[in-house]
Amino acid sequence: MFQYLVKRILMLFPLFLGITLITFVVIHLAPGEPVEMQSAMNPKVSAAARQRLREFYGLDKPLYVQYGRWLSHLAKLDFGRSFAPDNRPVIDKISERIPITLSLNVIALILEFGLALPIGIIAAVHRDTLVDRGISVFVFLGFAVPTFWLALLCMYFFGVLHPVLPISGLHSLGSEKLSGFGRFADLARHLVLPISIATFGSLAGLSRYMRSTMVEVLSQDYITTARAKGVKERVVIYKHALKNALLPVITLLGFSLPGLIGGSVIFETIFAIPGMGQLFYQGVMARDYPLVLGILVIGACLTLVGNLLADLGYAVADPRIRHGKG
Amino acid sequence: MKQFRWFFLLILLLSAGCTEREPAAVVKPRPQAGTPVHGDALVTGSIGEPSNLIPILSSDSASSDISGLVYDGLVRYDKNLNLEGDLAQSWEVAPDGLTITFHLRKGVKWHDGAPFTSRDVMYTYRVTIDPKTPTAYAEDFKQVKSASAPDPYTFRVVYDKPFAPALASWGMPVLPAHLLEGKDITKSPLSRKPVGTGPFIFKEWIPGQKVTLDANPDYWEGAPYLDRYIYRIIPDNSTMYMELKGGTLDMMGLSPVQYQRQTNTPEFLSRFNKYRYPASAYTYLGYNLRLPLFQDRRVRQAITSAINKQEIIQGVLFGMGQVARGPYKPGTWAWNPNIRDFDYNPARAMQLLREAGWVMGKDGILVKDGKRFSFTILTNQGNDQRIKAAQIMQQRLKAVGIDVKIRVLEWASFLTNFIDTGRFEAVLLGWTIGQDPDLYDVWHSSKTGPKELNFIRFKNPEVDRLIVEGRGTFDQNKRRECYYKIQDILAFEQPYTFLYVPDALPAVSSRFRGIEPAPAGIMHNLIKWWVPKAEQRY
Amino acid sequence: MSGYYKDFWRRFLNNRLAAAGLLLVIVLFVLSVFAPWITPFNPDRIDAWHVLLPPSGTHWFGTDELGRDVFTRVVFGAQVSLKVGFVAVGIAVVVGTVIGLVAGFYGGWVDSLLMRLVDIMLCFPTFFLILAVIAMLEPSIWYIMMIIGLTGWMGVARLVRAEVLSLKGRDFVLAARVLGASDLRIIFRHILPNALSPVLVSATLGVAGAILTESALSFLGIGVQPPTPSWGNILTAGKDYIEFAWWLSLFPGLAILVTVLSYNLVGEGIRDALDPRQKK
């Protein structure tokens, strides 16, 4: 187990390097110098200021030197300062928004697993029946509907026509004056729409995966044997089959993160949630290169960490790895 | 609210947001009787987040919405768009027009309690012209030969030659010297926590959510009736409209469709007052005059004749705008009401094109010297109205044999790769119309360099002469004469096809009283807005 | 082989959802191909005096904010949206297949290197990458298709590699090798045809995903640019009128929904039909 852990952590370094390399290349696809872009937005940027920027990014040097410099800044968690007129350190701008995006996505992830797994199991158990087909159509509908459209329809229905839920944002005005519980309830009401829509949209992938794994397990010999021995169907399904079918699902946990974070651009824009997705979109549109670089690297590293945790979870759950044969 | 002559705002005239502050004539007053009382808050929304609350460092409309309420200038425009004293109680212009002496208001305090003096004005002037300050507003102040502050309540500036926009340029917000002097302004905490002298005191800014301002009880003109001004950041326009309908937003600028088709229900009208007046902005199609194709005046006149401006106003603005024929807002003193340019007349367009040597080709597109008449209109992404207008023009021009392509570009690359390098054929853009009619930056032939605003390279000695003459005198009649003549020349030359002046269409919750629509719009007397006790919400 | 396909078809069509999905996919495809003959209107024909008309006998789906016929635009939009879907997936499949084949066939450090690349690409929130590239280059349909393709090949690469690894040791491949077949010949004659079916499934799902991605980009204003109609940009234009001109968003929204749903059902159907365990 320890060996596995060390190996797994050592693997992070080349992956991290790869992430930074790809991010760097993507940004340099854009025509023109980053500094040029900033001065384009502000014709009066002084020559001295431009020179300082050129030096920070080493823009007069060849690309590989620039990459090296940027990496060494990164190592010190120095993402540079935003090109936006506020000129704030990128790390500050990101860190005030990451908690929002991350916690929303974690809640959505928990809901997703909490709903998709039972749905997938039910579909597998009732394979090829009306129940199975109904579930298929339902989960695929969630995947197929353009999220911003569904979001707007829900906002109009629940916020304007039948005003039971707040339309956008995270807090009501004046919620500062509420008690601790009141504030929490207010926040929760604001999160109902974005989180349900995010969850509805992500059910398909996981529930279909669960269904096919479960179908596969149910067709295996030991299940047939158990059934033949007269073990009750419930016990067969929920004790024998489920345990084995759940194992591979754990690794999916880590991989669900990038999709959710990517989707947060849309959710946060439409629901006016001040998270990282919204920040990224604004940064991209304003060509705020340091910010875009920073969010890409941090976003990818979050997944990296998510994957690591998922793998460790898998290792803990799977006896073969647990006993050091991984 | 203050109307600064912030000329570079025009660069950023992207779309929504800036309309509420715009001046103009009136619509639909409602009886607003009663005795004003204090209390309640105004909640408004913005697509964009402010970038920097030190006004000289930012040029986006969200930042200036906020800093306009927190800071004061020496002068400001009143509701009828005449200059009046703000932090300056009075001023004198010397007979030669070269020296202006401001007498500052006494007893004004910064929000942190420090007294306001001429030192603050001096600092603001110096930091704005400091080459190390990355500001877009230095140009007007660079005309100043010398500035002095003989005593704490007097500030004097001397110009080389008479400079008509000078007075208005002192509407620039005054910054607190005691908090900024000797420090690097680009790193100042004031960019996120401004301290001014204005009617509202900055309270908090929650990034991505809202900016809250509290009434300034010590404001020199008296405390605002409203206790609070809340500026919510809502990045999507449809969401913002739903918030308005849901009652969680008190004010927003409506789109023409919303104004015309979605808000005429008795239910909406009982909860909101709608206002309508021309915005201080126009949209135009500009031709790159470096290109031989567009150097022929007849070609430019023909394109204007082929375009139906009324149709564009109908299609894009649902009729909520006026035809533009020059760079001024209809009804303002510099606007020439007698201008005639080229009305929609396809036959005349074809006639002009024939005269210019174009003949109809087999594919229905005009040809001259073996070349098809085809050009690309560039416009910026994110402005639906412009993209629609381009599509309508495309169809009309096709009818006279001109093939138009439309290319929508992201803003930054639009500026760097196309405007600055001159690699464009025609652009569809807009300018805001400044309060002062000076046209130097956009139309003078000296302003055709890189990153300057006469990027179509319009060069006309007569226009140059008239511009210089117009800004060199304080006599409004003389100035008007100059600007009338310039409009005549532009209407004949058609370096732009001026398209339309849109209407600003704000809607405000009907619980607010004291709103007084005027040529300056509705926001000029925000401090007098009030809500009857029974209707107060916050 | 024909027996195998007959069997496959029987199993596929037995799955009623998949069969319905296939029918819809075909109908939409035909509609988009014959768009100019289906509707009497020109998709770009503007009529500023007849904007936002509700559905009627003349305009089945009403007119949009510039007076264009929405039905016509949705039908022509199908061409664009399906093109985005197919080309993007085509790119993803080609890149993914090549990388998967090379990694699986040659193994060793080549394999490790390529698979690490896959791991790295999988770490990025794909939509962030797409957004960054499109916004910084420009929102042209070609860039959109390319970047969706170039960020979507990893799944295919893994599938193909796994398939190659399992086939490499099989008798018919070994036999071919003994008979002196070249690497390329083995890859193209023996391995590729067998790896195709899982790729087909993933491609079908990919088309659906690409159509959705384009609509999300359109929502942010950097999808396929007007006047070219795509379902995404028609829907986005309609979102401002949800309340009173519902037809402008309903029809493109439904078009996306039905298409994505159908492609998913078809993809599932193919997977199940290929899966021997499905045999009853």
TrEMBL record, chain A:
ABC transmembrane type-1 domain boundaries:
98-310
Q: Where in the cell is it found?
A: Cell membrane
At the top level, the lineage of the source is Bacteria
Q: Which residues cross the membrane?
A: 12-31, 102-125, 137-158, 187-206, 245-271, 291-317
* UniProt cross-references to CDD domains, sorted A to Z: TM_PBP2
Q: Which UniProt keywords apply?
A: Cell membrane, Membrane, Transmembrane, Transmembrane helix, Transport
UniProt main location, coarse: membrane
What is one cellular component GO term in this UniProt entry? plasma membrane
Q: Which family does it belong to?
A: Belongs to the binding-protein-dependent transport system permease family.
Q: What is this protein called?
A: ABC transporter permease
Q: Which organism is it from?
A: Geomesophilobacter sediminis
Its ancestry begins with: Bacteria, Pseudomonadati, Thermodesulfobacteriota, Desulfuromonadia, Geobacterales
From TrEMBL, chain B:
Q: Which UniProt keywords apply?
A: Signal, Transport
Tell me which family the UniProt entry assigns to this protein.
Belongs to the bacterial solute-binding protein 5 family.
Q: Which Pfam families match?
A: SBP_bac_5
What Gene Ontology cellular-component terms does the record carry?
ATP-binding cassette (ABC) transporter complex; outer membrane-bounded periplasmic space
Please list the residue ranges annotated as the Solute-binding protein family domain: 83-446
InterPro entries under this entry?
A: Peptide/Ni-bd (IPR030678), SBP_5 (IPR039424), SBP_5_CS (IPR023765), SBP_5_dom (IPR000914)
Protein name, UniProt field: Peptide-binding protein
**GO BP:** peptide transport
Q: Carries keyword Signal?
A: yes
Leader sequence residues: 1-24
A GO molecular function annotation here is: peptide transmembrane transporter activity
UniProtKB/TrEMBL annotation, chain C:
Taxonomy, superkingdom: Bacteria
Pfam families documented for this protein? BPD_transp_1, OppC_N
> What are the recorded Gene Ontology BP terms?
transmembrane transport
Transmembrane as a keyword? yes
Q: Tell me what topology the record assigns in the membrane.
A: Multi-pass membrane protein
Where in or outside the cell it occurs: the entry states: Cell membrane
Instruction: Cite the ABC transmembrane type-1 domain residue spans from the record.
Output: 78-267
| Protein keywords | Cell membrane, Membrane, Transmembrane, Transmembrane helix, Transport
Main subcellular localization, coarse class?
membrane
Q: Name one GO cellular component term.
A: plasma membrane
The keyword Cell membrane is assigned to this record = yes
InterPro entries recorded: BP-dependent_transpt_permease, MetI-like, MetI-like_sf, Oligopeptide_permease_AppC, OppC_N
Q: Which PROSITE patterns does the annotation name?
A: ABC_TM1
UniProt lists the family membership as follows:
Belongs to the binding-protein-dependent transport system permease family.
What is the name of this protein?
Answer: ABC transporter permease
Q: Which organism is it from?
A: Geomesophilobacter sediminis
